[in-house]
Amino acid sequence: MMKTQLSYLKKLSVLGTKTLVKYYLLAIVSTLLYLVVGSFQFKASHEAFFSTVSPAQAAAKFIWLIGLILLPVLLFIFSNKYVFSKIASLVLEERQDDLILPAFDKVLLIFQSNQPDVIQNVADYSFAKLKLINDVKNTKIENPWVRRIVIFGLNKVKFDALDLDNNTSFYAIIRSKFMKVLEILTEPSSKPFWLCILVQWLILLFVWLTN
């Protein structure tokens, strides 16, 4: 059983790394082309970068410069989000019962033994949830993907007035809500990443038209 889990977690790490490297390379290549093609277009206009002939050229240079700074950051952010959501969805579909829930229960038991007063006396469940998330970060969950999925699920857990009115224990409530969050976890989407790529090339088209 342990060997099977280790083999599966290793496969996840390889898949996650390969996918992340692929999207990073796409982001780097697209950004380099954005820089080179844009610079070439500005040089072809025989005008200094900060000199303008028309408002359209001024707008094109400003938008290109903002895109050069902002879009690469967004590309790397969306790459990480997509890879995480892809791995998380795969784990939840295939191994939720023997990887995610046992890791969550392990952290919950440690939290319960270390912080009994918080659960019994404090009405602010959200504060207790934050302390639980901190415990997850400090607990030795072997695989970083599993740890990130547990933290992600806890961050999505929301409490309402009904939770405070019932006599149900904090542990029962948060476990129930955690499982519901995992069930409604959205499918991974790379659309934001490709939208950023499209915006880069639309900006280059706009620069070309203004020149």
Descriptors for this entry?
single chain, 211 residues, mainly alpha, 8 helices, 83% helix
**How many distinct folded domains?**
1
Rg result: 24 Å
Instruction: Specify the overall morphology.
Output: elongated
Quaternary structure of the protein: single chain
Largest sheet: none
Q: Could you report the average pLDDT, rounded to the nearest whole number?
A: 79
Q: Number of DSSP strands?
A: 0
Q: Determine the strand fraction and express it as a percent band.
A: under 5%
The unreliable regions are none
Helix and strand pattern: HHHHHHHH
**Distance from first to last alpha carbon:** 64 Å
Count of helical regions: 8
Helical content stands at over 70%
Structural class: mainly alpha
Task: Give the secondary structure arrangement, pairings included.
Elements: H1 2-44, H2 55-114, H3 116-121, H4 125-138, H5 144-156, H6 161-165, H7 170-183, H8 191-210
Helix pairs in contact: 1-2, 1-8, 2-4, 2-5, 2-7, 2-8, 4-5
What's the quick description here?
Keywords: Membrane, Transmembrane, Transmembrane helix. Helices cover 83% and strands 0% of the residues.
Would you kindly provide a written description of the structure presented here, covering whatever features stand out?
Keywords: Membrane, Transmembrane, Transmembrane helix. The chain crosses the membrane at residues 21-42, 62-79, 192-209. This protein is mostly helical and 211 residues long. The chain has one domain (2-210). The protein is built from eight helices and no strands. The longest helix is centred in the middle third of the chain and has 60 residues, at 55-114. The chain is elongated, with a radius of gyration of 24 Å. The model has no long low-confidence stretch (mean pLDDT 79).
